[in-house]
Design a protein that fits this description.
The chain contains 22 helices and 27 strands. Helix content is 29%, strand content 19%. By secondary structure, the chain is α/β, with parallel strands linked by helices. Helix 3 links the parallel strand 4 (58-62) and strand 5 (91-93).
Length: 640
């Protein structure tokens, strides 16, 4: 049987189940990563499971999201992560070493390995042929403790690439084209696999940009073959021994094939406020720009920064534009400094930020009122920048650089010097801590670290009020905002819960508490975006027992199940229109609903019944009945 690359990667890691689309499977996990926004909760959950050393080949804890230490909270959480990770045999990448996905690609990623990360952009690793999947913190904790991950076997969309990109078109433009074709929900339940002669023209950093933003499709992950360019990249990182050639069998089948001629792609932009709101840069040309931010895990590689430096060399940033540069890793920054490219960037008038996520997650650099901000990031959700009135456009690094110079959105054109990757990267891992170098470790717990909520076993009936009704494409940023003010409290769910859904309705948390809990009603693609399980734990803290939506994003759905919250989908989407905030809903037999996969729900306020579906496998049914994964695992694998 001829297999595509995705099937090969899954088959070599298959622990149980069959590779039939829609069926539950269990795969072995080689590596994990966490970051400090989601990692604190992940390690609290790992401790709750009461396990010793992790069983993976390599697990790494990165501190890269919240570098602003304006109070003790962040420093305390960083100390907790470092101590608890090392005590469990997990490597630690300290603050300043760089963004998790960029550093992992450089120093740890291995073609053919599985990687599970508590960050939705973990699929970046697919750029070197990994099966790299984002998940909630508890699923990552379980992967570290058990070495496995539970999945639903996805469909595989093959994207056949031909030709090569034009000189002023970037990998970012290609993934924006894929988003234009598929939309932010077009990848749900699917893996995107790239193949064809056009792949050979894309470097590893370019491939990583594309797989990184595959998360915006809602895809389980994205993957490229591992080939001679992968080998060259790993050799330059001093890791040629990690290389293995990987590709689909000739003539392998896909569930769907999309063909893209790279030579036909034009510079593109995602207009506010969604990554699939894609237009050509030419359509926007001439629009005044106030801010330009270049960096993030999507576009912060050495290759990207060298292209930006070449575009800025000898030029000046427009006086009305603020340009910030965030290198993806210390390695990138060091090499920019050594080759003189950093001087070209700084001489242009750009501001250099730390090697961290920074403004991509709203950690500083919020634009001014009503600003137009061009960003090379992966998300432009409403208010994510920290300024609700700002219009954020996602663009390529070259479009960003050219626009920063002109002061208006500009199509990149003209010649810049040819940029190539070095034959040898500057390697300095002094900010990476190896747990083997440490003996007994005392785990440090600051006063801001609070117990997280655990669900209750299902029993009786659920009789709750609809405490909010929301529309389509509600993101995890909407459900649980993550910004400079709130991120320091990522280990304090009781405090965070007061801000749940505050970008949609500031009174939601207070109203839900007053009602003794409630039910959330939503539209299509509910919970898209970040993997943060805080978007499930905060509703659990407030007493939310179920969400009823038209459709739901994969990671958020799994996080709700892990928390013991029922992720229900309308059997008939027209029933969404009949429900109003304040309606009292009754599920007489929630246990029976979980077991049958169908809930008959009474709208007591309006006097009618409707049906909602619960698409869960047998294991997930048990988890929901037990009140969440912690209870389920304590009863089983980690039972006392």
């Amino acid at each position: 049987m001829k297999l595509n690359l995705t099937q090969k990667l899954i088959s070599t890691h298959l622990v149980s189940g069959e590779m039939k689309v829609g069926q539950p499977i269990v795969v072995s996990v080689d590596q994990t990563l966490t970051q400090d926004s989601t990692g604190t909760m992940c390690y609290l959950q790992l401790e709750a499971l009461k396990v010793g050393k992790v069983v993976t080949k390599r697990s790494v804890a990165y501190i890269d999201h919240n570098m602003l230490q304006s109070g003790f909270e962040n420093a305390d959480d960083h100390a907790y992560i470092q101590s608890v990770a090392l005590s469990h045999g997990v490597f630690v990448s300290k603050p300043g070493n760089g963004i998790c996905h960029q550093v992992h690609l450089e120093r740890f990623g291995v073609p053919g390995y599985t990687l599970v990360g508590s960050d939705s952009h973990t699929p970046t690793g697919g750029g070197i042929g990994m099966l790299a999947i984002g998940a909630g913190g508890l699923d990552v904790a379980l992967a570290m403790a058990k070495g496995t991950l539970n999945l639903t076997m996805p469909e595989v969309i093959g994207v056949k690439l031909t030709g090569r990109l034009k000189p002023n078109v970037c990998a970012k433009d290609l993934i924006l084209e894929v988003l234009r074709i598929l939309s932010v929900k077009g990848g749900v339940g699917k893996i995107i696999e790239y193949f064809g002669d056009g792949v050979k023209s894309l470097t590893v950093p370019e491939r990583a940009t594309i797989t990184n933003m595959g998360a915006e499709l809602g895809a389980t992950t994205s993957v490229f073959p591992s080939d001679n360019l992968t080998k060259k990249f790993l050799r330059a990182q001093g890791r040629e021994s990690d290389f293995v050639a990987l590709s689909a069998d000739r003539g392998a089948a896909y569930d769907k094939v999309i063909e893209i001629d790279l030579g036909l792609i034009e510079p593109l932009a995602a207009a506010p406020h969604m990554p699939d709101n894609v237009v050509t840069v030419a359509e926007l040309a001439g629009k005044k720009v106030d801010q330009v931010c270049i960096g993030s895990c999507t576009d912060s590689s050495l290759l990207t920064m060298l292209k930006v430096a070449a575009a800025l060399k000898g030029k000046k940033v427009h006086p009305n534009v603020s340009l910030t540069i965030s290198p993806g890793s210390r390695q990138v920054l060091t090499m920019l400094s050594k080759c003189g490219a950093l001087k070209d960037i700084l001489d242009s008038g750009a501001r250099l930020l730390e090697c961290a996520c920074g403004p991509c997650i709203g950690m500083g650099q919020s634009p001014k009122t009503d600003a137009v901000s061009l960003r090379t990031f992966n998300r432009n959700f409403y208010a994510r920048s920290g300024t609700k009135s700002a219009s954020v456009y996602l663009v390529s690094p070259l479009t960003a650089a050219y626009s920063a110079i002109s002061g208006v959105i500009t199509v990149p054109q003209g010649e810049i010097e040819d940029v190539k990757l070095p034959s040898r990267f500057d390697i300095n891992d002094s900010l990476i801590l190896d747990p083997a170098d440490f003996g007994d470790i005392t785990i440090e717990r600051g006063p801001n670290i609070k117990p997280f909520p655990i669900g209750q076993k299902l029993s009786g009936k659920i009789e709750k009020t609809v405490t909010i009704k929301v529309g389509d494409n509600i993101t995890t940023d909407d459900i649980m905002p993550s910004n400079a003010k709130l991120l320091p409290y990522r280990s304090n769910i009781p405090y965070l819960s007061s801000f749940c859904l505050s970008t949609v309705d500031e009174s939601f948390s207070e109203r839900t508490r007053a009602a003794g809990g409630g039910i959330i009603v939503g539209g299509e693609n509910y919970g898209q975006g970040s993997s943060r399980e805080h978007a499930a734990l905060a509703p659990l803290q407030l007493g939310i027992r179920a969400v009823i939506v038209k459709s739901i994003a994969r990671i958020h759905r799994d996080n709700l199940i892990n928390s013991g919250i029922l992720p229900l989908v309308f059997g008939d989407t027209t029933d969404y229109d009949k429900i109003d905030e304040g309606d009292e809903l009754i599920i007489d037999d929630p246990v029976g609903a979980v077991e049958s996969g169908k809930a008959v729900i009474k709208n007591k306020t309006k006097g009618y019944t409707f049906t909602a579906l619960l698409n869960v496998n047998d294991r997930q049914k048990e988890i929901l009945i037990e009140g969440g994964t912690i209870n389920y695992e304590r009863r089983g694998t980690f039972g006392e």
